[in-house]
Amino acid sequence: MKAKILRVNLTKKCWQEEKISLSKMAGGRYLTSYLISREVPPHTRPFSEQNKIILACGPLAGQGISSASRLSVGSKSPLTGGIKEANAGGTAGDALARLGWNAVILEGRSPEWVILVLEEQEVKFLPAERYLGLGNYKTAELLHQEWGKDYSLILIGPAGEKKLWASGVAVTDPCGRPSRMAARGGLGAVMGSKRVKGILLPYGQVSPSLREKRWSLIEAKKEFHHLILKSERIKILAKYGTAETLGLVNTLGALPTRNFRQGQFELAHLINGEALFNLIKERQGAGKHTEKCMAACLIRCSNVVPAPDGTEIVAPLEYETLGLMGANLGVSDLDSIARWNYYLNDLGLDTIEVGAALGVMAEAGLATFGQPLSFEKIILEIYKDGLLGRLAGMGASFCGLALGTERVPAIKGQAISAYDPRGVKGTGLTYLTSPMGADHTAGLTVFAPVDHHTKEGQKELSFRTQIIRAAYDALGLCVFLLSATGQHPDKVVNLLNACYDLELKPHYLEELGAEVISIEKAYNTAAGLPEVEELPEFMKEEPLDPYHLSWDIPPEELACFWENLKVGGRKP
Amino acid sequence: MKAKILRVNLTKKCWQEEKISLSKMAGGRYLTSYLISREVPPHTRPFSEQNKIILACGPLAGQGISSASRLSVGSKSPLTGGIKEANAGGTAGDALARLGWNAVILEGRSPEWVILVLEEQEVKFLPAERYLGLGNYKTAELLHQEWGKDYSLILIGPAGEKKLWASGVAVTDPCGRPSRMAARGGLGAVMGSKRVKGILLPYGQVSPSLREKRWSLIEAKKEFHHLILKSERIKILAKYGTAETLGLVNTLGALPTRNFRQGQFELAHLINGEALFNLIKERQGAGKHTEKCMAACLIRCSNVVPAPDGTEIVAPLEYETLGLMGANLGVSDLDSIARWNYYLNDLGLDTIEVGAALGVMAEAGLATFGQPLSFEKIILEIYKDGLLGRLAGMGASFCGLALGTERVPAIKGQAISAYDPRGVKGTGLTYLTSPMGADHTAGLTVFAPVDHHTKEGQKELSFRTQIIRAAYDALGLCVFLLSATGQHPDKVVNLLNACYDLELKPHYLEELGAEVISIEKAYNTAAGLPEVEELPEFMKEEPLDPYHLSWDIPPEELACFWENLKVGGRKP
Hints:
homodimer, alpha+beta, six-stranded mixed β-sheet, 22 helices, metal ion binding (chains A, B), iron (chains A, B), oxidoreductase (chains A, B), oxidoreductase activity, acting on the aldehyde or oxo group of donors, iron-sulfur protein as acceptor (chains A, B)
């Protein structure tokens, strides 16, 4: 395919349009990883002018297809030192597609802080001075006041401005909240290093693609949407949101509890999907147990958490946050967790990374497991740029170094998500082998109907999951679709065929996923990262109670993890 | 030459002797860098089991030659991420040579903490439990009590045990003080990561080499020593020690003052060579204004600083410490600086790195320039493993990240020594181009009779200085010899010829230096480090008062710095 790229040179404040040929019909993570590997030398320091930020939508964005408009953000990560992609829902993926860009490359470094406005035939560089230091919510409010609600926003908070390594990139949701985060890998800090506080994209004003009216696409969409609507798992997601996962992982004995010391949290029932659902139902007000994060979404796993008085605390509150800032800190108070989630969205920080960092701080005696106020104090310190706040914002590994704690749940410099590798072994393998580091989105296996405690079959499971997730990421598709469409690659490929007059076969998805991972692996190898990582020592030494689970995947099996990665396939 | 290597596998607690062929007659930094580049893959993480520590003496050690017995310690550095060598005086270089080893390789990681005893036909692995947490002075005292004063010790302090990145490797001096530090690059932390608390080498008991009685060597030594004795610069060193440099650098306007904010310290006269000399003279007691750091040394730039009651505060107190912990902190109290030097020796930390880190902390408001107690509090926190103490012990760059201060005087992750690059431009070039990072020992130009403020001729000066210093490091020679022997390479080569029946020509030194640097450069390139670094932003932006000196070396000149590095030459 030919991709249309908008290249924005921040140093010179100029921009140009480019067309590049790609061997795959894809966007999203394929495009971010392809462009980073082509344009950013592997040894580039993450905050140097030579690093770039790539924003890319998938090829199905902007067409009214459910859950197909995620925005990928790619760069070299300050946390992992390798290539990173993180994606988010919200409206920016659609907005980018409707502007006609497959990707935007931000390169160089602006001499002063700017806000970019990407319009159909123009890029504006506006002074950002008055927004500096403001949280994402206030910044979004001001920008929407000034420019109108019709703009989609891509923002960094005060944490990104300060280049805190746990900073993410926030995208506004259909209601204008800057709470959809491309959270992992510290990409917000890279955006901060470029002195870009935010990006505006016209959203509502732009007319939908003509392709939407094609008969073949209407048909393909119908079949695709039908699959989603009939999925039982998706019905559960629409009721309880991702919080529903907490019960499952707790039952498995793999819920990070008190800095990954236990796999079950005795107060899990106070923060699980049902508890959250009930809280929303009881309090009502602004609360919603189901909501879309993208304009077209039939999954609707998002939610709005209301305070006792009915006002909104945060939207959404998701499983990873409940895991890392709840069980992992011994905290069972949904109000606290929701409020912290709001603070971190506002600051522009990854709740996984900060949650893990707070666990490390409790390990070091700077906070107390189970005492919410001891953590809240540190979170509020991030606003004041206090030392402990900064450490939390730098992430778990940095915290461990600063505090001298080796009990740090991180791999490749990045905090482990809310699935203890000892209890969900396939996901553990993903953490150790994915070019993304300890990032569940790269290959979460917990929903597969297998015994997650045994080592048998986990390698194949993680391998397949990583490939298919990479393909979904490369198509801008939400991975929650997988429970509905995972067994029907033809329905996904049909969408591409209908949009672009292609004749792709279902195995295209595997080819695409393999290609994405091979690009990323090659980059990381050139950057000096090992192909396979090791678990933190403590996870190798301590069995995980209550099921006394040990990490028992033999190193030989890990070493040859990627040997069957086949890359190739025809050009679309 | 054939080098005799003792390989100690810490994981398996075994050892073996190896002989390797080298293309150069050298040891020291040549051997450490050669072995690291051959045995430690460039992308190895500094604290992984795959990293190694190499200890090497020069080929002239153990022969009673003045200032020729420095011990080189080599490894991959946690601070720079590249290859590092740091060397120290003391008795270990002679001890190693007399045991017949050119180098010791420490590889793997001991399952529990050990003390190694290297004897003539044996390596002992002793439990180190009872020494853990003890400072270098107490450890040395206990080990000397137990084993006798005749043992040379190579130790890490509590900082190295905790893997603080500013940790050095301490070597005992002829009086048994563990105060000769292979300080830079965090090599003590690597030794800590291997769980080696200390190494004992028999020293006094071993009879001197037979070569010492050779007529040709006696003659060559005589000529060499004669050069030293007649050098005016060395007479000054013997009177004032390295502290004498402070006056010179202050006059030049290049003395780091208050975190490199000024180049002159208004209270420099209270901490310069004369002030120190007078303090020692007045107080007498244990004080000595001149002392040897190695058994054979005619330079005797070391000293013993007495307290008002005549008891010893520290030995020695040197220029870099006076610069970084004095002027750089706005502190003019010799007693405080001497006491801090003792503490850092005891903890096993580099005074340059910690001094720079304390300056960064003052920059961030955690201490106050000119108020000694505000710094002493932080230094004492290192003993208690308090957070601020840990940050100081992690060095200037880590401190800057933790505190959010970008005014950090560091290059390649390592603190700049006590010569502001804006005021001593040749040394600035060394910082930016040396594989060792910001380390004056790699190529200090301040004693050259040139205008250090102009850019003219600095490139050639730094280049030549780096080459000759690399050669001296590779021969185990103290670089302070250079003022006496720098113009007489024949006298150095004569020593080698007399010892080893060779016919090396004087230009051998240049060949050797070039070879050392080219090995290190190739390693760093493979590890992903740039060949040429950049100054910290603030040094590019702020002119240095009082002489309003800017960094004006054009990037083009830097980019081609090493283009004339010629490597080759005949085998000895």
